[in-house]
Amino acid sequence: MSMFCFQCEQTAGGKCCSMAGVCGKKAETANLQDVLISSLIELAQSSEHNDETTKTIIDGLFATITNVNFDNESLKAMIKNPKFSMKEIWEGNEDIRSLKSLILFGVKGIAAYAHHAWVLGYKNNEVNEFFYESLDALTKDLSVDELIALTLKTGEINFKCMEMLDKANTESFGHPVPTKVSKNIEKGPFIVITGHDLRDLKLLLEQTKDKGINIYTHGEMLPAQAYPELKKYSHLKGNFGTAWQNQQKEFDNIPGAILFTTNCIMPVRPNYKDRVFTTAAVRYPECAYIDEKKDFSPLIEKALELGGYKEEQKMPGINGGETLTVGFGHHTVLSVADKVVDAVKTGALKHIFLVGGCDGAKPGRNYYTDFVKQTPKDSLVLTLACGKYRFNDLELGDIGGIPRLLDMGQCNDAYSAIKVAVELSKVFNCSVNELPLSIVLSWYEQKAVCILLTLLYLGIKNIKLGPSLPAFVSPTVLNVLVEKFNIAPTTTPEQDLKQILG
Ligand code: SF4
Ligand code: SF3
User: I need a surface site. Which of 29, 209, 365, 370 has the fewest CB within 10 A?
Assistant: First the structure.
């Protein structure tokens, strides 16, 4: 059976996955996900705009993000026999396909963030209306200019969505505070929780109170350790392992249970399949699924049955570091803004780098480790999302008490980085592009697409993007991005640093 998917960074041969996904997605699953998108398009075009339809669209889009849903039966249950076929886009004009892909993949990312806000009780009408507008546009005969405008609007809406999620997270759990996180796993029963959903973590912490079970964050859940309403639980211990692409090795025969709340789930190996639980948009055949009632009892029982390690285990980061520091969201960073401004004025701080985005399995991602290691001592490195596992265990020192490496949170906390940049530009009375700030992004899946579109919508120039450029960006569209925004692929850390620092 053949398939067509080119939505992520690891797509086969840098072109498309056509027989099976490099991510492990089978052709049947990929095709079902395409039919699901068609089905959502027709739902958006034919239904009344209400909460029920909006939530169906959000959850359907979320299910098609890379490494979220590998379960054909659950996909089939979401499909309503559409007439439109995604082939019309995939087999059409290359530039139109490219722009429609940017919009569709961006909207998938927005759906994930809207879902997290929604479950905390936060919705935004403009964001919700855009799901209908953008899906409808995918079937329309639009010009390149019209599609470029809609692509930038996707970035604008994502900005509003990330802002809403920031509000949802901080009003529900408090503003993140700097927090040191251990990478050791204590003896005794434990649960590893991964993904981006903070509400799931809160519910799990409540249900495991006084049960003799420790909870460890993994992957994109790490920043949760910094939220006051989550860190107050004494059984929320350290962080397990590194980024998503190492899970098959790190979960090998693990004596604990694992909960996936979002991406990135990889094909689950038999030696830990019985201890993997998924919830919300994540589905994997034969793995237990926890529905919206969020009764985590089977997960808790599994953790107790497995019993955990007999002795404490050390799980250092990829550079050997044994602790990580998190919690530098906009609230914390802006509370020391005067110190940052003074350091710039006295010359103690000469440059700020934002090195963030997704991690991934393909070789070449050590670029980000080497880049951060080589940043000069009079520079700060802001980071976010799971790409930071390439360097977040490094000890980079500080500048006048401000740590040189500042972990701002999950990918959606790109909102924090933008807020800080905008505030600094106000203080220095210049545009964000005139700040001594450089953005070096790593991308993998579709949330990185909507974040990139947000940065472009905000007019941010000179972004370096790696480890490779998206296969769905056609040469013409790339030219537009280069001409308008001077976006460039990463080269080598040495060359890029030399160019940035002039
Ligand atoms: Fe290939 Fe990525 Fe699509 Fe998976 S999500 S099938 S790896 S392009
Ligand atoms: Fe990572 Fe999958 Fe993108 Fe939120 S967990 S960033 S890749």
Answer: 209
Q: Cα(349)–Cα(402) distance, rounded to whole angstroms?
A: 10
Instruction: Give this prediction's pTM.
Output: 0.98
pLDDT (tens digit per residue) in 415-445: 999 999 999 999 999 999 999 999 999 999 9
Helix segments in 348-413, DSSP class H: 366-374
Distance CA 286, CA 301 (A): 18
How far apart are the CA of 16 and the centre of ligand 1, in A? 7
Q: Is 238 in the pocket of ligand 1 (CB under 6 A)?
A: no
Q: Which residue has the tokens 């979960």?
A: 251
CA atoms within 13 A on the CB side of 152: 15
Q: How many of the other CB atoms lie within 10 Å of CB of 401?
A: 8
Ligand 1 pocket check for 66: Cβ under 6 Å: yes
> pLDDT tens across 67-91, in order?
999 999 999 999 999 999 999 999 9
Q: Which amino acid is at 310?
A: K
107 and 61 Cβ atoms separated by less than 8 Å: yes
Q: Is beta strand 313-314 parallel, antiparallel or unpaired with respect to 184-185?
A: antiparallel
Q: Which residues line ligand 2 (CB under 6 A)?
A: 196, 219-220, 244, 263-264, 358-359, 385-386, 410-411, 444-445, 447-448
Q: N- to C-terminal Cα distance for the chain? A: 51
488 beta partners? 464
Q: What is the pLDDT of residue 363?
A: 85
Whole-number Å distance between alpha carbons of 30 and 20: 8
Residue 444 and residue 414 in contact, taking contact as beta carbons nearer than 8 Å = no
Q: Which ligand is nearest to the CA of 222?
A: 2
DSSP state of 309: B
Ligand 2 center–CA 485 separation, angstroms: 24
Mean per-residue pLDDT of the chain: 98
- Cβ(437)–Cβ(410) below 8 Å: no
Domains in the chain, start-ordered, CATH in brackets?
12-172 (1.20.1270.20), 179-314 (3.40.50.2030), 327-501 (3.40.50.2030)
Question: Any bridge partners for residue 201, and if so which?
Answer: none
Nearest residue (CA) to ligand 2, atom 6:
358
Q: Is beta strand 179-182 parallel, antiparallel or unpaired with respect to 323-326? A: antiparallel
Rounded to 10 degrees, the C-alpha dihedral 331/336/337/342 comes to -170
Separation in Å, CA 489 to CA 16, 250, 386: 19, 31, 20
Q: Give the CA angle between residues 193, 445, 256 to the nearest 5°.
A: 20
User: Three-class SS string for 44-65?
Assistant: HHHCCCCHHHHHHHHHHHHHCC
Residue 376 CA to residue 497 CA, distance in Å, equals: 9
